[in-house]
Design brief:
alpha/beta; Rossmann fold; 22% strand; 8 helices
Length: 251
């Protein structure tokens, strides 16, 4: 029986799973055999949250949230269900049976992409950064947390699944200055944000663009939850039951 641990970095991501205020860095039960740990932004924070969930007794981990497109084929609102995760030339596995079952029950109107999801150490704030990462890794999208969760799952020998919705396309990136007005959980420091708008560091149209991207990305994530509940595919076969057949296929 699967006991799922979900890691989300941002409060806006976590609220797609349950409309409540989650405490930072605490394991909270959000459904039958499903818990969430809100990690805050970054690799180290996500790793810590994943380890907390493992200590809580989960046997499957999910990275749930938004991502940036690093090729031109994806737009905001597209859903990325990667088939592998890459960081520093290491390829981290995804439970492909779980992933494929989830893709199979998604609505036809929702664009679902596979391929590789890459790790980035900091937000990608230019088209050039995105292109360089995509070309170096062969990835279609990137985020800062998924690789950390995937690594914890791989080390623990448990299933891993990434569910990521595109928030910004290749041609548009959040400005670097925006990070000065963002708390670790992704919420905005309104006073600082107003200062950045007033001094011209962040145009109003950029904020509107970002808000629209988050809106459609959250809509895709909410659809996943509506289609699957909090089990992310009710007919999922636990990892330990399919490991032998995976090994045989490799041989």
């Amino acid at each position: 029986m699967k006991i799922i641990g979900v890691v989300s970095a941002l409060r806006s991501e976590a609220k797609c799973l349950a409309d409540r205020r989650f405490p930072l860095y605490q394991v909270v039960e959000i459904g039958t055999r499903t818990s969430l740990c809100l990690s805050s932004i970054g690799h180290s924070a996500a790793r810590g949250a994943a380890l907390k969930l493992c200590d809580h007794g989960v046997n499957a981990l999910v990275s749930f949230g938004v991502a940036a497109a690093v090729d031109n084929n994806l737009i905001p609102g597209d859903l990325v269900l990667p088939e592998a995760i890459t960081k520093d030339d290491e390829i981290l596995p995804v439970d492909l049976e779980w992933r494929n079952r989830l893709e199979g029950i998604m609505s036809k109107h929702l664009t679902v992409a596979g391929g590789i999801l890459a790790a980035c150490e900091a937000p990608l704030t230019t088209r050039q950064e995105k292109l360089a990462l995509g070309e170096a890794t062969g990835a279609c999208a990137a985020d800062m947390e998924t690789a950390a969760v995937a690594k914890v799952a791989a080390d623990a020998g448990i299933s891993f699944l990434a569910i990521r919705a595109i928030i910004d396309p290749l041609e548009f990136s959040p400005p670097e200055a925006l990070m000065d007005a963002v708390y670790p959980d992704g919420s905005a420091d309104i006073v600082q944000l107003i200062k950045l708008v007033m001094n011209g560091s962040i145009p109003i149209k950029t904020l509107i663009h970002l808000a629209l991207g988050m809106h459609v990305a959250r809509a895709a994530l909410i659809e996943v939850v509506q289609k699957t509940g909090l089990s992310f595919a009710s007919d999922y076969v636990p990892y330990q039951h399919v490991e032998e057949s995976h090994d045989q296929s490799i041989d």
